[in-house]
Amino acid sequence: MIVRRLTQWMILWALSFVTLLAAPVFAAQGSLVTPEQALSDPNQEARAQNLAREIRCVVCENEPVALSSAQIALDMRKAIRERITAGDSDAQVRRFFAERYGEFVLLRPRLGLDTLALWGTPLALLLMGGAGLYWVSRRKEIGPEIAPELQDDEVRAALKEYQLSDLND
């Protein structure tokens, strides 16, 4: 009887824990698109949802409008659906938002000179650093010159000459 009650409590606690963890996920999914916002054509709705994942919310930091709960994100999702309903292609919808809010609004910006410079500069610096390290490692080391080995007799003669010159001064 006691084991049975403990098991029931453990199951109840586990279900409560899972419910608490899953509640934000279900709440976020439910607030993204209400039935009156969804497009009647499933292909158009799929396009709208894909575009909403590719367009950044201008209020939230690095969050697509599909996941944002900000009012501007709701307006942007409505604008996406309106543009698709009007017959715009995905590229035209992206261009509309890029012209209105700037390239920053696109999570995958178009390839241009500014984006090439942004992505190419670190790569160029890395390559230049590697070339510099290669050049330095291949360069002949400059160090102190090694004196030629002298024989003991030569050393004694040079020492005597030094001592004699020191005495004469």
UniProtKB/TrEMBL annotation:
Pfam families: CcmH. Residues 24-155 form the CcmH/CycL/Ccl2/NrfF N-terminal domain. Belongs to the CcmH/CycL/Ccl2/NrfF family. The lineage of its organism: Bacteria, Pseudomonadati, Pseudomonadota, Alphaproteobacteria, Caulobacterales. Residues 1-27 form the signal peptide. This is Cytochrome c-type biogenesis protein. It comes from Candidatus Phycosocius spiralis. It comes from the Bacteria. InterPro entries: C-type_cytochrome_biogenesis, CcmH/CycL/Ccl2/NrfF_N, CcmH/CycL/NrfF/Ccl2_sf. The keyword GTP-binding does not apply. The keyword Iron applies. The chain crosses the membrane at residues 116-136. Keywords: Heme, Iron, Membrane, Metal-binding, Signal, Transmembrane, Transmembrane helix. Possible subunit of a heme lyase.
